[in-house]
Structure to design on (641 residues):
């Protein structure tokens, strides 16, 4: 099943299971982004609400409905629209449970069905803002594959807290077998896609596929373990520690900006708490707004060549004395 | 009815005056935004609501929360940061909430609660529960985009929302004349909703207008905008008195004080009734302060509780 179809199946299965669940967003009835197609016909127009272009309002609207007992998925057409909604997510929904001493819960999923760069969309349509939400302690989900997208979307919808769910644009065309029966991938559980003993490569979102391709390419030379956190907050530190316990070496492959990005957090935590044999490395986006021309865009994004160089470097480092 | 309205207003007034003393005595941390002068607005609006109806409040929220029926003892405990506070000491003045009474919280961000009211109102329509939602905001809040986004949707979908603008003439030091083009009523009317200006110093006038709005909302006739013209007698917050700000004159304050809603409503009650209520309120607030002081202080080891409804523990600031 294609990744995008898996997202649609997760929404359909959950809407059938929970009659209180509804979807809001822009053009969600016609389904510009493809994931909500047919839901209005199947479940009724009052379960799939087309909203005026008022992201702050419809994000807060979902909070209000959630406080009144509903669950909601809010779709954003562009990843950077989350900046408009940031106050309502990070400062309202996320904090309400604490601020009310546990009275309020806000089970809302903030869903971007196409986050990150997709070549040629330029600076305002190419961001991949997961680090911001992880930084704010908002549960943040970034599935790399179709089955994980299904299981994590179901888990995110059923979760009692706000969850930011970013489907990487570059992963949407990928395929993976997805079981017919509903299932859940718990938030906070990582996945080791490929075992290896020389180095742990943490790759996020669509970069998991890239890291796996590189592991194949380098197979004769280096044994790469490919670790996909799947959820960025909470992060599966235990699984990562176990992996680094075996390899002793770490490279992080991250599509966030370099400064204060997710990779920085992973490396800092590993340095403090895990048995690294050699200094780790990270390959990230440059701190550059994505330029339009394809050559420039590619130069700003993390690449497989950069990852290969980092992996080779880390593996050749002398073991610390 | 008048006696009950007066009792609520008196409770808010004296609650706030005691809060000022407690802030000044450092028994309450931080600053609070007092509602003194504006009591008729919260009291009149909430008297038109039922227990299940929803309100969203503001940084100046104590009045709304009291008028909606919250227990002043647990409110006071919250302000003192105690475990028996309505929010278990996690919210304080700017986040007081009581979901059992439809109080979706005071809010530290101007107008940010408005869309909650729309979401709750939409849910009420879906559930045919008859619930209406009132959202309070100031003249300053009337310039927030999110409020206008919400007014648009509420009018478009005919949601049972009551937009209660408390126009006290200022957003901190900025007068309405220096902040606001055109008229608030005309802005609201342009969305196609009922909109009226109300004397916010007259609790009966507010109650009348709010009843009309609630009736329309429950009848499916959509939202109403009430511009309640009022005034705050105290500074923007408790700390203002030390700041020597010159944005308004003593004469202006004195002239509004002549229309103090407690004096106006109190006069109509007769001396004996009024004095009895005043005494009852004093006793209630004595109890509230005593209750708050007796309540335990939170244990620092509980600082990471109630962050996630799912029970997830947040990361702490040091490696384990
Ligand atoms: C969005 C936002 N901007 C600025 C502030 C800081 N602030 C707190 S209250 C306030 C003035 C609000 O004025 P108004 O809405 O008229 O309410 P009032 O204080 O008069 O009750 C400001 C600027 C804030 N809390 N939220
Ligand atoms: Mg004001």
């Amino acid at each position: 099943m294609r990744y995008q179809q898996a997202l649609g199946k997760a929404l359909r299965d959950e809407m059938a299971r929970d009659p209180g669940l509804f979807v809001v967003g822009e053009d969600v009835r016609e389904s510009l982004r493809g994931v909500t197609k047919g839901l209005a016909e199947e479940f009724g127009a009052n379960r799939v609400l087309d909203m005026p272009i008022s992201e702050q309002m419809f994000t807060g609207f979902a909070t209000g409905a959630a406080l009144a007992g509903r669950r909601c998925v809010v779709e954003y057409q562009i990843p950077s629209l989350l900046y408009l909604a940031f106050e309502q997510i990070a400062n309202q929904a996320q904090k309400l449970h604490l601020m009310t001493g546990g009275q309020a819960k806000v089970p809302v999923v903030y869903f971007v069905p196409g986050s990150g760069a997709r070549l040629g969309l330029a600076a305002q349509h190419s961001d991949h803002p997961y680090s911001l939400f992880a930084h704010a302690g908002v549960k943040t989900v970034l599935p790399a594959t179709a089955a994980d997208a299904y299981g994590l979307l179901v888990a995110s919808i059923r979760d009692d807290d706000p969850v930011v769910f970013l489907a990487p644009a570059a992963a949407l065309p990928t395929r993976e077998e997805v079981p017919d029966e509903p299932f859940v991938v718990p938030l906070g559980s990582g996945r080791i896609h490929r075992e290896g003993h020389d180095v742990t490569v943490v790759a996020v979102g669509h970069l998991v596929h890239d890291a796996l391709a590189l592991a194949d390419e380098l197979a004769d030379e280096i044994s790469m373990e490919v670790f996909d956190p799947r959820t960025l907050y909470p992060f599966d530190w235990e699984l990562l520690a176990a992996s680094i316990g075996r390899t002793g070496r770490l490279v992080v492959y991250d599509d966030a900006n370099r400064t204060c990005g997710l990779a920085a957090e992973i490396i800092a935590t590993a340095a403090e708490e895990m048995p690294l044999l050699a200094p780790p490395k990270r390959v990230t986006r440059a701190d550059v707004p994505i330029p339009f021309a394809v050559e420039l865009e590619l130069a700003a994004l993390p690449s497989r060549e950069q990852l290969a160089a980092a992996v080779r470097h880390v593996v050749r480092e002398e073991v610390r004395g | 009815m008048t006696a009950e309205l007066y009792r609520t207003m008196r409770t808010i007034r004296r609650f706030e005056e005691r809060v000022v003393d407690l802030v000044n005595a450092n028994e309450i941390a931080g600053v609070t935004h007092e509602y003194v002068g504006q009591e008729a607005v919260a009291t009149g609006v909430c008297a038109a609501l039922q227990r299940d109806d929803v309100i969203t409040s503001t940084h100046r929220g104590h009045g709304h929360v009291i008028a909606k029926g919250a227990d002043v003892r647990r409110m006071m405990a919250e302000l003192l940061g105690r475990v028996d506070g309505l929010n278990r000491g996690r919210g304080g003045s700017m986040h007081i909430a009581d979901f059992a009474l439809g109080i979706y919280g005071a809010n530290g961000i101007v107008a940010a609660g408005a869309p909650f009211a729309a979401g709750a109102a939409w849910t009420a329509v879906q559930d045919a529960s008859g619930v209406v939602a009132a959202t309070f905001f100031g003249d300053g809040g009337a310039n927030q985009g999110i409020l206008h986004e919400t007014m648009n949707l509420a009018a478009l979908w005919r949601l049972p929302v009551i937009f209660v603008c408390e126009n006290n003439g200022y957003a901190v030091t900025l007068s309405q004349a220096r902040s606001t083009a055109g008229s608030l009523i005309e802005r609201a009317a342009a969305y196609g909703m009922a909109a009226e200006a109300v004397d916010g110093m007259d609790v009966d006038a507010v109650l009348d207008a709010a009843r009309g709005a609630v009736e329309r909302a429950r009848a499916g006739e959509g939202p109403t905008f009430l511009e309640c013209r009022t005034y705050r007698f105290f500074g923007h917050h408790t700390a203002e008195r030390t700041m020597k700000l010159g944005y308004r004159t003593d004469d202006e304050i004195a002239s509004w004080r002549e229309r103090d809603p407690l004096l106006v409503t109190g006069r109509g009650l007769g001396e004996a009734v009024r004095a009895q209520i005043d005494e009852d309120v004093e006793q209630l607030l004595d109890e509230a302060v005593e209750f708050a002081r007796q309540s335990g202080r939170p244990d620092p080891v509980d600082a990471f509780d109630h962050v996630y409804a799912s029970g997830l523990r947040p990361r702490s600031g040091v490696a384990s």
